[in-house]
Automatic annotation (TrEMBL):
<dbReference type="GO" id="GO:0003697">
    <property type="term" value="F:single-stranded DNA binding"/>
</dbReference>
<protein>
    <submittedName>
        <fullName>RADX protein</fullName>
    </submittedName>
</protein>
<dbReference type="InterPro" id="IPR040893">
    <property type="entry name" value="RADX"/>
</dbReference>
<dbReference type="Pfam" id="PF17659">
    <property type="entry name" value="RADX"/>
</dbReference>
<dbReference type="InterPro" id="IPR012340">
    <property type="entry name" value="NA-bd_OB-fold"/>
</dbReference>
Amino acid sequence: SKLTNLGHLEMTWRSSVHFHPLLVRILHKSRLRYYGKPEKKMDMPYQAYFEVADGSGMMSMVLWNSLCPEWYHSMKVGTVLLLAKYAIKSSYPFKTQPTPGDSQMKRFATIEICLNVRDPPTEITIIPEEMVKPEWGLPEVKYRFITRSELDDLPHNHSCDVIGLVTFVGRAERARKREHSEDFWLYRWAHAIDGTSDQPFILELFATSQPDVFERIHPMTYLVCTQMRVMTENPSRTVYLTTSNESQIFITGWHKGQPYTKDAKVKNFIQWTKSQSEADQIKKTVIGGYYPFPRPPDSFLKY
């Protein structure tokens, strides 16, 4: 069928009612958002954002309501989609923005693609990776992996991806989303090493929309965290990483077929793990317990 591209959509969307199909690759995926309220009677008040791209650039795509339970888990980072009968609307200005792996990619920020169950009913087709043709010009998923030795030089709130061997994972803890609120964030602390520093990555991992992975983070697994934010604790200058709205977490057993397996820093890490003694590393691992962070000074004078 006749296709359009994201760049053409941005120029012509106001003068069009029906849009030609789109062929795009998912580059980023947000956590699933529940926006239900007691006074509003909606069957499936869910929403999820994706950043999708073709040869012309990148744009936000929103999956609405009952399409979320049907499609959210099938739409992975790297998945190629053929979209027909979608809607276009002005973009929501207060949405979080992931940092693209390719800084040269053009971003279309004024509009977003809406996938709805009706008005119009969107047609979604997932194209298997082996059927994707090079002539379609779809961009590859790119990452911003850093090593532990590079972390201390990065600015506050910098976005990056990390891979490491888990040496500590704390118990799941809860924090109120807002004061006096009944809603909680669920999170846990983890340490991961990559052989480039004596210090581990300190990771604050909030439960994303991947409960199966979040609950199975154990010592000695290879942990990949994408779209993490650098946080600097003053005055101690302790640096840690926290998840963002677009973070994805993967552990041993989930890595196969993920786009990051081709990344050079991921390959270097795998080579380093092959040189390590598993028995020696297991002796250094810890699980559970209370993890106070940032750590209090070791004497009152230092307060």
